[in-house]
Design goal:
Layout: H1 3-27, H2 52-81, H3 88-111, H4 121-148, H5 162-189, H6 195-202, H7 209-212, H8 216-238, H9 242-267, H10 272-296
């Protein structure tokens, strides 16, 4: 790999770290650690760390700012390195567009006070959209790393049913992620004291909608995981090259591990450390799906 490809992988890894720290911000109720100010923190460029929440939120803003700078460097470097019309340009240009949207969505959560104890439907929709945009950003960064490391361009022509099957799988994982973001919000705002208490709340019509929605995330996850495992196995049997088999095994293996992590998250009543692991695995499944699609649908 050339230097640009290595830098692309580093940028992808950094953005995953930013996403994970964002989960810590939400889980610790630190979203308003800088008040309702943005881009300043409590009206200051460098705030006085009077609260732990301020430190957590300000650290996330610093990490997000570094991510934005890294992607812009990626864009400028890529535009200089790859000629107009090159398929590689799709990756870093798309990443630049969606990291700007990511920053605006993050700012919106703060400015519209969709943080801390806010349990409105507006906040639930906002966090779901934020997660979806994050997935799109990671998709472009993953494809950028894949293509600049030597991956071939993608074509959907004359590929039979494969594009549709990938579309179904990716849409399913995205829906899992969005429902998971809403479920995690509910776990933060309405923590359960026991598994029995959690199950009892599901049948209570007077319970908050974030509580009643919890049941749908694991159901969706099971259906999508079964589909993904079937799809990964069928692709593994079709591949003759080792790279394809390894990518299919990676997707299948991560899907199984994610299912186990999800079950553990429910049983343990969603502790913060488990939420972070669960989100990391979700990002990993998504990235592996993107790479598998990039490999399978590539043409010379």
């Amino acid at each position: 790999m050339n230097r640009f490809a290595k830098f692309s992988i580093a940028v992808l890894a950094w953005n995953v770290l930013v996403v994970l720290w964002g989960a810590i911000v939400r889980a610790t109720g630190s979203g308003a650690g800088c008040g309702s100010h943005w881009p300043s923190c409590n009206g200051q460029i460098i705030p006085t760390p009077e609260r732990v929440q301020t430190i957590i939120e300000f650290a996330h803003r610093i990490m997000s700012g570094v991510a934005l700078i890294l992607v812009l460097i990626l864009l400028l470097w890529g535009l200089k390195s790859y000629a107009r019309g090159s398929y590689q340009r799709i990756g870093f240009i798309g990443a630049a567009v969606f990291i700007i949207i990511e920053a605006l969505l993050g700012a919106g959560l703060v400015l519209f006070k969709l943080v801390e104890a806010n349990s409105s439907a507006f906040r639930a929709v906002a966090v779901a959209l934020h997660l979806f945009n994050t997935f799109v950003l990671l998709a472009f960064l993953s494809l950028n790393a894949w293509w600049t490391a030597g991956g071939k361009r993608i074509s959907l022509k004359q590929r039979g049913i494969l594009p549709l099957m990938f579309a179904i799988g990716l849409a399913g994982v995205a829906i899992i992620g969005m429902s998971g973001a809403i479920t995690a919000l509910g776990d933060t705002l309405f923590p359960s004291t026991s598994l029995a208490h959690t199950l009892a709340e599901q049948s209570n019509p007077a319970a908050h909608f974030l509580i009643r929605l919890r049941i749908y995330h694991p159901i969706i996850a099971i259906f999508v995981s079964v589909y993904s495992l079937y799809f990964a196995r069928s692709l593994y049997n079709q591949y003759t090259q080792l790279t394809g088999k390894r990518l299919a095994m990676l997707l299948g293996g991560l899907t199984i591990i994610q299912l186990l992590a999800g079950a553990s998250n429910v049983i343990l009543l969603a502790p913060i450390w488990m939420q972070v692991i669960h989100l990391f695995l979700a990002d990993s499944v998504w990235i592996s799906y993107i790479l598998l699609a990039g490999y399978t649908l590539s043409v010379e």
